[in-house]
Amino acid sequence: MQRSQDHPFTYSILLSGETLAQYHNHITRKLSSMEGQYADGAAFAAMLSQEDVLVYEVYEIVRPEVTGELMTGLSIVHPGRVGEECFMTKGQFHAVLETAEIYHCLAGEGVMVMETPEGEWAVEDLRPGTVLYIPPRWAHRSVNTGKTEDLVTFFAYPGHAGHDYGTIENRGFRQLILAHDHDAHVVDNPRWHLPEER
User: Fold this and answer.
1) Structure pTM?
2) CATH number at residue 33
3) Is residue 159 one of the residues assigned to a domain?
């Protein structure tokens, strides 16, 4: 039976295949789309010359982009390294800064790197069962610190929040996640800056 857009609905998360039983958009981000985001440019170029690997993907349930609606979906960050830096999402602020987001980690291990426009930062662990609340004004980036498993998270955010990728593409995040041997470490990003510092 065809239902109107304002009717309640359910959908399933299929962890065996790491997808949604139904979805509207499947977004893929390969290494080439992450140019300028990794600290080790030489390692990035060398890796890209070998293969344009899939870094992460997103399955979205699309709703109207208006106040009162929620966007939901599944984020999957694959395991890998560029030099010593872990595979990650592009990261973003919401275009409407005063909007929050929730992530529920379903599989894998990783961290969420976050910061405000003023440069305050936080890094929170993501493990299966973890629910992370990201307050308004905090940019966020998922990072897979595992060696073999995908980092799988379910997300929900306000329909009118929008995306601001440009700020992060320009200045980066204040903290980087590097993997030394078996452990991941938080280190300062040498290229990070506030806008007035340019």
Assistant:
1) 0.91
2) 2.60.120.10
3) yes
CA 154 vs CA 2, 15, 60, 72, 144: distances in Å = 26, 11, 10, 7, 14
| Closest alpha carbon to 89 in 102, 99, 80, 98 | 80
Inter-residue contact 191 to 39 (CB < 8 Å): yes
DSSP state of 197: G
Tens digit of each residue's pLDDT (9 = 90 or more) over 167-181: 999 889 999 999 876
DSSP H helices in 92-189: 166-171
Which tens digits make up the pLDDT trace of 89-99? 999 999 999 99
Residue 169 φ/ψ, nearest 5 degrees: -60, -35
How many structural domains compose the chain?
A: 1
Which of 42, 74, 48 has the alpha carbon at shortest distance from 61?
74
Distances (CA, A) of 142 to 3, 45, 154: 34, 22, 12
Specify if 3 maps to a domain: no
Residue 104's CB is within 10 A of a number of other CB atoms, namely: 16
